[in-house]
Amino acid sequence: RTQAEMAHTCRGTINLSTAHIDTEDSCNIVLSNGGRTYHLKANSEVERQRWVTALELAKAKAIRMRNNQSDDSGDEEPASQSDKSELHGTLKTLSSKLEDLSTCNDLIAKHGAALQRSLSELENLKLPAESGEKIKAVNERATLFRITSNAMINACRDFLDLAETHSRKWQRALQYEREQRIRLEETIEQLAKQHNSLERACRGAPGLSSGSTGITSTAKGSVQSAKGEASDEDEETEYFDAMEDAPAFITVTADPKHHRRSGSNLSGASEGHPEDWNLEDSVFESSNQSSYNESTCKDLLPKKRRRTRIPDKPNYSLNLWSIMKNCIGKELSKIPMPVNFNEPLSMLQRLTEDLEYHELLDKAVKCESSTEQMCFVAAFSVSSYSTTVHRTAKPFNPLLGETYELDRLEEFGFRSLCEQVSHHPPAAAHHVYSKRGWTLWQEITIASKFRGKYLSIMPLGAIHLEFHSSGNHYVWRKVTSTVHNIIVGKLWIDQSGEIEIVNHKSKDKCQLKFTPYSYFSRDVPRKVTGVVSDADGKAHYVMSGTWDEKMECSKIVQSSHGSTSMEGKQKTVYQTLSPKVLWKKYPLPENAENMYFFSDLALTLNEPEERVAPTDSRLRPDQRLMESGRWDEANVEKQRLEEKQRAVRRRREAEAVEALEEGKDYEGYIPLWFERKVDAVTGELICVYKGGYWEAKDKQDWSTCPDIF
Fold first, then answer.
1. 573 occurs within a structural domain
2. What is the rounded distance in angstroms from the CA atom of residue 495 to the CA atom of residue 493?
3. How far, in Å, CA of 493 to CA of 551, rounded?
4. CA 213 vs CA 220, 249, 592: distances in Å
5. Is-contact 356 479, C-beta < 8 A?
């Protein structure tokens, strides 16, 4: 068809390189590519065969073009003299081959003419009529052969002429495209550097630093509490009003020796006794004492000896941008990625890593006050991000039905089970039981988007925590994680957003804010702040710290409304006692930078164990090969597992279509150890543990487990 006809009659396009060509009957052709299918009908069986042949040839050509493009996707240098000489050498080779073909053509013509003369002489002989007919047919075929060879030689000559005519044009076009690509890459890199320079310049601007200075000096200052007047607050607190997106409260440290109030006229004041902070339940004191030597205490516990290192990460270079540039705006879980961007842990194991500081929950069990207990729960929710500060690699996407168990019942009093309950969207269910008095469960769906310069990872779903003795039921959700410098520079990760932890029994709340990193702020990087309040909204504790180092808790002894900011918002001033450290991060093991920055717990998560389910992540072959440093083999194995999973999905889709045609219900994939129920607290549909896994492990009866590896 002509271009004009195509513009009016084309119904769409299909990528032949990945298309499947099939024939339904003598005249129909089916072209399918993923979700798009075309049904073509020919006038006859002969015409259908001609179309099938033409489509197969076009498909082969499209595959060759795609492979050539992928081969040329690496970095290229501008055309040099060697490129030109290579092009001229190719033309000379073509010319030489054409001369050989011409020689062969002359020989074919010479011998063909002799053959025809011999056949003509045979025709003149007196032979039976049948022999004459055969000789005549042979003569015609010889003539046709000579005509065909002449046509072939002429076509080759025309091709060489065309190649010589357009060689310079091709060379100029290739040179232009290479220059454009290099110029574009340089522009992107320059823009990224200019962006960073502008941020640093803005950070150093004098007009932006006063707010941060105010925060530091106020936090270290003290309130003149003798008069008890709000107007008597330190004047530096006014600098908070100049801060954009400033915190909703101000914290100042009181001196317990001079903290005496009689008849305070602060509006909305909530009073407490400083003596209580030193004499009350020893949970806070024990937390403060043990935070700094927690790793030493852990070693004193009788436990199974576990590994303390894994093979060093190989130094394989790979161009991240060459892969990610075609993925902008796509869902990360649907992008096929080599293991070079992974770490040798699955998402189920990363989810289990949230339990690294489980002792915070063990201490929370001992709290008599629900607001005190909330402080430990808040510290636990922050501690789960401490392992991510250097972990920019991507965990393996679990296969549907994959599980992971962590049985530490004898050592630490808890056992954990995860199962991948959905593939698209990817969702994992998690259940943890502790004999020390708490149960945690969650179903997390990971949504992610690549935006060119950064990658956003958004965990969706609620985390539930219940204490057995008190019945306190806490619910919260995770914040957004962002991986920066995808194009240029060193990868780094940040956490931002807010967490609201709610105790659905006592109605206590804790609002935690994860401040995103910015060049504009001189505040502490990775800062987390929050307030614990009761059902009446009365604030009891201030939480402060960083998500990669530690969290502190300060008891509020006085709260008041401060001055109004320029935005019309009124600040709350909290007068607190000295902070207590609730949680402090364990130091990383020696040589962690060569072991994917794994913590002590992470190093043990993929350690081989006996008696686990055949679907356990420890038995995943591609992950095990990667951990051993055999990345090429791991990539091959990863492709095999993914193709196996796609085949299962296609079979399941076919079963769904068949059931629909027969008017039957199709349930789809049913999780093995979890079941979907409506949560009584949140009203959401969530996968909860239905039991049976640990009993199956005791009996070593894994007959219900699917074959996914």
1. yes
2. 7
3. 19
4. 11, 16, 36
5. no
Residue-level pLDDT at 319: 59
Which tokens in the block code for residue 630? 């055999």
Closest by alpha carbon to 386, among 509, 299, 291?
291
487 touches 453 (CB < 8 A): yes
CATH of the domain at 389: 2.40.160.120
pLDDT at 132 over 80: no
| pLDDT given for residue 303 in this prediction | 63
Cα–Cα distance for residue pair 264/28, rounded to 1 Å: 90
Q: At what angle do helices 129-203 and 81-124 cross, to 10 degrees?
A: 170
Question: Do strands 473-477 and 462-467 pair parallel, antiparallel, or not at all (unpaired)?
Answer: antiparallel
Burial 609-641 (b: 16+ CB within 10 A, else e): eeebbebbbbbbebbbbbbeebbeebbebbeeb
d(CA 247, CA 570): 11
Q: What percent of the chain has pLDDT over 70?
A: 74
Q: What gap in Å lies between CA 708 and CA 669, rounded to an integer?
A: 13
With respect to residue 200, please indicate whether it lies within any of the assigned structural domains. Answer: no
CA distance 362 to 287: 11
Tell me the residue range of the domain where 597 lies.
Answer: 308-650
pLDDT at 661: 82
Last residue of a domain, one of 650, 672, 698: 650
Is 183 within 8 Å of 76 (Cβ atoms)?
no
Q: Which helix (H) or strand (E) holds 466?
A: strand 462-467
Structure tokens at 6: 């195509």
Give the C-alpha distances (Å, rounded to integers) separating 391 from 230, 285, 322, 325, 525.
46, 32, 22, 22, 17
- Amino acid 137 reads A
User: What total number of domains does the chain contain?
Assistant: 2
Phi, psi of 484 (to 5 degrees): -100, 165
